[in-house]
Amino acid sequence: HVATNLIPRINSFWWSNVNTLAYDSINSKIYLGGDSGLFARFDPVADLITPTPAQDMRSKIPFWLTYPINALEYEGGHIYITGQWGFAMYDIATDIATSLNDKLGGIYGSANSNNAVIGVGQDVFIGSDEGVFLKYNHTTGITQDLSPNIRTYFGAYAIRKFAYDSANGDLFIGGDQGRL
Q1: Cα dihedral sign, 163-134-112-117
Q2: Deepest of 5, 16, 57, 132, by most Cβ within 10 A of its Cβ?
C-alpha cells in the first residue's frame, strides 16, 4: 500500500485538526471528527476510481455547534460521537444524528468533556474528564455510572482512551498522569 495525501479531499471545508477517525467496515467509509464541530465522511473505495472530496457532514449534527469532537466509534451501524458538547449517535442507514445527552442525565455531572468512546456489543463506554466512566446500552437506552468501579485507582483524572481485548473480554482505560 502507498500513503495518499487526502488533504485536497477535505481542504474545501476543513480548517482545523483531525482529532479522531472511525472506520465503517460494512460500507468502507471513514468518518472524521475535529475541532469546531467538524464532522465528515470519506469514501476511499470511490476515491480509487475518481478522486472525490469528502462529504462535509456538519449539517447532520447542528446541535453540536462549534465544540470539538474528541472521539468517534463505529459500532453496529452507528457512529458514536463524544466531545466537549456531550454524546451523540449518527445512524448510518437513516442518515440521522441524535443527541444522547439526555441519556447521560445527572450522571454526566460536572465533567466538561467526553474524551473517549468504545463500542463493545450492545454497550458503548464513555470516558470523560474528572474520571467519569459511563456505560450506555444502545438497545435499552440505559446508562450506568461505572465511575465508582475505578475511583480508587483512577481518582478524578481524565479518561483519554480505551482499548478492548475481545478474546478475554477486558476493557483497558488510559488517562492523565499515567493512569491505566
Answers
A1: positive
A2: 132
CA dist 96 and 81 (Å) reads 13
Q: What is the pTM of this model?
A: 0.83
pLDDT of residue 170: 92
| Residue burial 124-161, b: 16+ Cβ < 10 Å; e: rest | bbbbbbebbbbbbebeeeebebbbeebeeebeebbbbe
Q: What share of the chain is helix, strand, coil (3-state, %, to 5)?
A: 20, 40, 35
Amino acid, single-letter form, for residue 87: F
Cell numbers for 135: 456505560
Longest CA–CA span in the chain (Å) reads 54
Kindly report the backbone phi and psi dihedral angles of residue 79, in degrees, each rounded to the nearest multiple of 5, phi listed first. Answer: -110, 120
Cα separation of 172 and 180, whole Å? Answer: 7
Q: pLDDT tens for residues 125-180? A: 888 888 888 898 988 988 888 989 988 888 888 888 899 998 999 999 898 888 88
Confidence class of residue 24 from pLDDT cuts 50, 70 and 90? very high
